[in-house]
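FAQ

Q: What does a record look like?
A: Structure on top, sequence underneath. For example:
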């Protein structure tokens, strides 16, 4: 008998849009939770209009973050819509929301209200800056969080260049992952005590946690590190180098790997240079080290260097485009590109689940819902009759696909 995913039986109501909240829901859905995505009426979630790219009119961005979820569309400006949602939340295990502070309270759906109906509810809030502190009422976006968390001050080619953001919306994604971690910890607490609680994280804090190394340096020295291109603030060589036909990443970040790298390079001038004798000296003389290595690596192709470095046991890899990463043998072997059935489009490719379980496998089971796809199914499951659902649809309270 096939094992079920680890979160099978847990019901999550996702009142979230764009990225951070949907990433949290995605993590839980991939692990088997029944995530019910509640979209606004009219129009549904804003990322449905992140076009292009699209597949036959369906937003690729929306489909990426909302697979494995059931979808309903409810107008929360209608009193009947609020009643629908409160009825869903009365028996849910988790609610995820990333509205502006006070929005849920104005709707009569704040935590203090909801826990009266459902004391075990885990109420997860994701915001720009958290629900406390002087910035609690500010809206937040990934770009702002990257700037204010210090990430943009350490990202880029080097000192004196204009600020650069991390290419991926790293604070959005990380906030979603941190929120999922918080939800699971709160659920464990509930299993022990029966008590629900609030879980509160933010894009700002998600950016800050990426500064562990740089914050360690600043707290120890009083100096703020700056951007270093692809280099590492504590170890060298640990960066990208141009080859005859592309780029290669070399991770010879400890003395054993440095000595192995010297054997591969066959560059006696570098091997005998006292400026590069140990990691402290290499970091002290990092520009000179990068320049010296930068003269050697263009002498061979990326593939040639990779063969030699792998044979010697030196960590290394190519710089792949997103498309090349999708086609890479390791990506495919780890099931990180999978097909998922979409109700309108058929089979659609998406990213796989990044955590593997030996006994309770996670996986991608459902394509992202079309707007209101599961409204009838979900409302029927919490006691509404077909006639009642039809009436809600006729009044504009819900959309039934």
């Amino acid at each position: 008998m096939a094992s079920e995913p680890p979160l099978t039986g847990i019901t999550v109501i996702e009142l979230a849009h764009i990225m951070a909240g949907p990433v949290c829901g995605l993590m839980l859905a991939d692990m088997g939770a029944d995530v019910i995505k509640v979209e606004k009426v009219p129009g549904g979630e804003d990322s449905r209009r992140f076009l292009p790219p699209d597949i036959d009119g369906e937003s690729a961005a929306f489909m990426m973050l909302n697979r494995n979820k059931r979808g309903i569309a409810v107008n929360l400006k209608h009193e009947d819509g609020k009643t629908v949602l409160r009825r869903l939340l009365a028996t849910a295990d988790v609610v995820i929301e990333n509205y502006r502070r006070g929005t849920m309270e104005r709707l009569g759906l704040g935590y203090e209200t909801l826990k009266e109906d459902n004391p075990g509810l885990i109420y997860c809030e994701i915001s720009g800056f958290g629900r406390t502190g002087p910035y609690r009422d500010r809206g937040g976006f990934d770009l702002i969080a990257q700037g204010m968390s210090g990430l943009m001050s350490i990202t880029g080619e080097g000192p004196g260049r204009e600020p650069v953001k991390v290419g991926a919306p790293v604070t959005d994604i990380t906030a979603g992952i941190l929120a999922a971690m918080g939800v699971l910890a709160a659920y464990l607490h509930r299993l022990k005590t029966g008590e629900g609680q609030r879980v509160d994280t933010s894009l700002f804090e998600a950016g800050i946690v990426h500064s562990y190394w740089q914050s360690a340096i600043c707290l120890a020295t009083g100096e703020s590190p700056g951007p270093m291109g692809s280099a590492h603030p504590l170890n060298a060589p640990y960066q990208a180098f141009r080859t005859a036909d592309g780029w290669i990443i070399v991770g010879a970040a400890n003395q054993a790997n440095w000595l192995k790298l010297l054997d591969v390079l066959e560059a006696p001038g570098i091997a005998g240079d006292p400026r590069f004798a140990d990691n402290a000296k290499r970091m002290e003389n990092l520009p000179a080290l990068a320049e010296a290595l930068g003269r050697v690596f263009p002498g061979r192709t990326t593939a040639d260097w990779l063969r030699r470095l792998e044979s010697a046991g030196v960590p290394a890899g190519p710089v792949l485009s997103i498309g090349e990463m999708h086609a890479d043998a390791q990506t495919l072997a780890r099931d990180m590109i999978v097909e998922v059935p979409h109700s309108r489009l058929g089979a659609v490719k998406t990213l796989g689940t990044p955590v593997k379980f030996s006994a309770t496998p996670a996986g991608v089971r459902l394509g992202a819902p079309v707007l209101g796809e599961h409204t009838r199914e979900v409302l029927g499951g919490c006691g509404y009759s077909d006639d009642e659902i039809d009436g809600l649809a006729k009044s504009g309270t819900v959309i039934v696909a």
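Q: Is there anything notable about this one?
A: The chain has a mean pLDDT of 96.
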